[in-house]
Amino acid sequence: DNWTVTRICLRLFTADKQQVGRTYDCYSLPSSSATSPSFNFKVECRSDLFQCTTFALLRMDTIDSALVAPSSVGYMTFKLFSSRDRARLKVNSDGTMYINTGSFQLPMFGGKPQPSGEFNDEMLNNLPRIPCASLLVRIVTAPKSSDGITTLSRDEYPEEDWARLGLDVPAPLYSSGSYNGTLCEPSAEDLVCFAAKASGPASSMSVDDSLSQAMAANTNQRLPAKPASLSTVKDTIAWYSQLFPASDQMRRVLNYALSIPYSVEAGLNVSVEGLHNMQDIGPGAGDDGKTGGLFNRKGARSSNATYVYKVIVSTYPPGLFYKEPPLLDSVFYSKVVDFDSSGKAPTFIGSSFNFRPPEIKSKFYLIVDVRKIIVEPPSTVSISSTAPSIKQVTRSIGTCDNPPATISIEPAGSQKNYWTLLPLGREHIAGQGYRYSQSGLFQLPLMEGPVPYADIFNSTNPYKEVRSRLAFKEKIAAKGTKSFGLKLSDGYSVVLAVSNPLLRPLINLNLNATSGGSGDAAVIDTLFMDSLISAAAEGASFAVAQPEKFRYYRSRTGARSIAENLSATLAEPTCTRAADYQELSKQINKVLELDTKLSAK
């Protein structure tokens, strides 16, 4: 849906990765539909000797309407030669090599092909398919002269003779059934995608109009302006060619999030990947990270404690979790912390949740609520009368020999909890409607205190309201007013993976690099974080509103793990068995559920 003008780059290769001839390219016709463009492009393959393994590799590029920047869309392949029964040939063999003539509908694959793999017409099969996207191509035998000796070419005859000589054969209509669509049989997910695309307003916008609209809507784009003197299709296509880099210089990949609109049937997936730069409290460290005990400014607590964080996620609307009485529909929390992860950057296991809002709106937000759980030996717990009210539950932890631990939770209204928000709706062009969901990895800064639901989410624009309150210069509200400032945490943040499940295979959500062809670490989107930090720099949180404080580190060498902190807290080195930590996770979850009434489900 975020296509405007498109370019096709076509190259011929052999199985030994040798390119045959030059690179060919063409552009969509200006008057054709932007989402179903026509090209009317022909490549004449001429050679005295073709290898039977020769195949075509095509790449589709576009000017992304959201960024107004050239981007690679996807790849397609087809073989030029085959056996009599259309099988792929592997070696040259007299009498078995046929031109693979016919009309074909080719699926389009996202991502980038791996040059280290095999080169043939099936080299893209390990890449994810782009839903609903395909390309129609025809392979025809080159026409011959009347004596059957000379192969004809467009270069040798005027255009008015092409049709008579068989050099210009009109393409059949797609509805005629002439195209072999075996490779594009729709899956169940494809059918949902088709329905999602059909549910929105019908778009008959032309290539030229869609590009003009995108360029007008984005004043920051840097593409060459459309000359006023363009009068022919040839002139317009010449301008299109100036918008793209050379075919071998294309680096950007299309943002697939805008390929398919949101579908209530598929929903929206949110995964809590982890927290970052958090307060790492282990035995002997105080609330400020120094020795002296937890809450040492509000009352004595044991210094022999460990923090374990829980993340609660929900959406607004409906925001039922923050109303009285709280309702728990579509409210989820991180179930299992990875005890081997750093105390400063805890990660979570199996914390992926699906939301199914009836529609996506501009005022649709993910609310992230971070609660602090404290694990202590019960014999050392001493809470003074000045300490905040903290729920305590004494729980046995697996097979540990020491007395069971005390697990406590900060009260919901404590300033020692944290929260943030993320707008979940997207437009592909400003003013065209929020039909799409966010997709990608997002790092968001945490703000101190409980979620100010009534003040923030009842406003006209919650995101702008948050920015405004972060920029509020006074720490305390003026007497008699409801306005108050928000305080940014000291570098604490959360990393979330958000995706439309229909596009999940196309969206790189790898937080860290892994081995294999698709193992590149994804780029973390910090746009919203940078915006909030920028606003806070003008307000009472200016001292901590520094981007370097929130910098994401993909590894934490030398940092203590949560398991190491807990072993010291419980003074029990045997509490490192998997069963013990599973039991501890269950008990921590139980404390959270008792406090919030969240269901273990």
Write the topology of this structure.
Blueprint (H helix, E strand, L loop, with lengths): L5 E8 L5 E9 L27 E10 L4 E11 L1 E2 L15 E2 L2 E8 L19 E11 L48 H12 L7 H11 L15 H11 L24 E9 L29 E11 L15 E2 L2 E2 L10 E2 L2 E4 L9 E12 L14 E5 L9 E5 L8 E6 L1 E2 L9 E2 L2 E9 L4 H4 L5 H9 L17 E12 L24 E2 L1 H10 L25 H9 L7 H19 L5
Parallel strand pairs: 21-23
Antiparallel strand pairs: 1-2, 1-3, 3-4, 5-6, 7-8, 9-14, 9-22, 10-11, 10-15, 12-13, 15-17, 15-18, 16-17, 18-21, 19-20, 21-22
Helix pairs in contact: 5-6
Summary of the model, kept short:
With 601 residues, the chain is an alpha+beta fold.
Helical content, roughly? 10-25%
Structural class: alpha+beta
Portion in strands: 15-25%
Question: Distance N terminus to C terminus?
Answer: 37 Å
Please count the beta strands (DSSP E, at least 2 residues each).
23
The Cα radius of gyration reads 30 Å
Q: How many individual helices?
A: 8
From the structure provided, what is the oligomeric state, counting identical versus distinct chains?
single chain
Q: State the major sheet.
A: 11 strands, mixed
The low-pLDDT segments are 286-300, 380-402, 514-518
**What would the principal axes of the Cα set say about the shape?**
elongated
Average pLDDT: 84
